[in-house]
Design a protein that fits this description.
Layout: E1 6-8, E2 13-23, E3 34-45, E4 51-52, E5 57-67, E6 73-77, H1 79-85, E7 95-98, H2 101-108, E8 117-120, H3 121-128, H4 137-144, H5 149-152, H6 158-174, H7 177-184, E9 212-214
Parallel strand pairs: 1-9, 2-7, 7-8
Antiparallel strand pairs: 2-3, 3-4, 3-5, 5-6
Helix pairs in contact: 3-6, 4-6
Length: 215
């Protein structure tokens, strides 16, 4: 059963953490498989692009098999990797943003109905630019902001990081952050299967337990 809608006020500014998870090796995911978490923090402000307050940080960890709320086994990141993203004693950011936040948040764990809220780049792009809904992270960013091609086609993880930053800035110019968070809870078809973690269980699950409304 879906919970009652949670109303999100308009935030004039706030701290946001942009995240990405990629497997360290190719192949089917499994308990103990190495994974890389990238994240960068900054502040959003209504009507402006992000102001970054940190460089990208990369941490290596592994997947662990745990039980979900229904008692079914599923994979999550190991505790030390999560604590590196959300250290004890430090205020949490207002928003987590990432390409497929339904899936990323399932891997990261934690409640979804209070901060950090989830801002899904894929869902936002699908809403505002439906003609590229079948594009993955990199192709979508290149289609929308081709002038950033020199940043988004570099070797290594920096290309994905630049693509995520590009899509985030694009969306923040389209709508306030609270509306993007509310939109992220809308059920849509899953992202394309060419993304690095598309083979994992839960990739195609787009159901949210929480409904948000926004001014």
């Amino acid at each position: 059963m879906t919970a009652r809608p949670v109303h999100l006020p308009r935030w004039p500014a706030g701290r946001l953490c942009l995240i990405d998870l990629i497997p360290q090796n190719l192949g089917a995911p499994f308990h103990g498989a190495p994974i890389i978490l990238s994240h960068r923090e900054g502040f959003f402000e209504a009507g402006s692009s992000m102001t970054w307050i940190s460089d990208w940080s990369q941490r290596c960890g592994c997947l662990e098999e745990t039980l979900d709320d229904a008692g079914q086994p599923h994979l999550t990141v190991n505790d030390s990797l999560f604590r590196g993203l959300m250290p004890s004693g430090r205020a949490a950011p207002l928003i987590f943003a990432g390409y497929h936040m339904h899936f990323l948040r399932r891997l990261l764990g934690g409640p979804h109905d209070h901060p950090p809220y989830d801002l899904c780049l894929y869902t936002g792009i699908r809403h505002f630019c439906p003609w590229i809904s079948d594009f993955g992270l990199q192709l979508a960013a290149l289609e929308l902001v081709p002038e950033n091609i020199h940043l988004m086609t570099r070797a290594g993880p920096s290309a994905r990081q630049a693509c995520a930053e590009t899509l985030l800035d694009f969306l923040l110019k389209k709508a306030p952050a609270n509306q993007l968070v509310a939109l992220s809870g809308v059920r849509v078809p899953p992202p394309p299967d060419e993304e690095p973690l598309a083979g994992m269980p839960g990739w195609r699950c787009m159901t949210s337990r929480f409904v948000f409304t926004a001014d």
